[in-house]
Design brief:
This protein is an alpha+beta fold. The protein is 33% helix and 23% strand. Strand 4 and strand 5 form a beta hairpin. Helix 3 crosses helix 4.
Length: 98
């Protein structure tokens, strides 16, 4: 029997590590700060931050105002180009993230 995935738990996945190791995004240290990290990926620019109050990670596209959220949103908007949580979970499993 497969373990049931708690979608809220996915929001605690370290997006800094995922952007760099899984997505291969370029970390731009000189534009980053203690509040978040600046990345270039696939011709786009992203700001990734960790919310110390909640322990969750969030991203914001700096080139598309409607592209923001958690790892779930990033995969749906930038990898799959469709809103399908089942496929997001499948992708995360294929990449050994969960």
């Amino acid at each position: 029997m497969q373990k049931k995935i708690n979608l809220d738990e996915l929001k605690y996945i370290n997006l800094f590590n995922i952007f760099e190791s899984v997505f291969g995004a370029e970390y731009i240290k000189k534009k980053s700060s203690k509040y978040g990290r600046y990345y270039k990926w696939n011709g786009e620019k992203f700001w990734v931050r960790y919310d110390y109050r909640t322990g969750k990670y969030f991203y914001t596209s700096l080139t598309n105002d409607s592209d923001k959220g958690t790892i779930i949103d990033f995969i749906q908007n930038n990898i799959l180009q469709e809103r399908n949580i089942g496929k997001v979970v499948q992708y995360l499993k294929q990449k050994n993230i969960i």
